[in-house]
Amino acid sequence: MTAFCRNCGSALPYAARFCSSCGTFVSGASYAAYSPYQPRLERPLYGRQFAGVCAGLARTYGWDVGLVRIVAVVSGIFLFPFPEVIYLACWIGIPEELPGEMPMGQVQQPPPQS
Ligand SMILES: [Zn+2]
Question: Where is 96: in which H helix or E strand?
């Protein structure tokens, strides 16, 4: 597994905390390396925009979900229809996250008693 620096784009070891080229803190890679939650390729139930393919890829690989969506939309326009076919394949092929498997910190809090 490799990670990429958000600042300069250098390939880094997946467990790297700082970029070896520019010294930027690589928060996504460190989160993935040190989190007790093991990310799997699945479509999350929360944080999805459409089918959860972009959110699932972003969460699994530590990418920025906004960036993934922008790349998906732009490539969908200019490379039609190939990205759409890939998206449909991911939709079918990537399992949906099961309820109750949400990572810590995303658990819904019960509403306050009034
Ligand atoms: Zn860098």
Answer: none
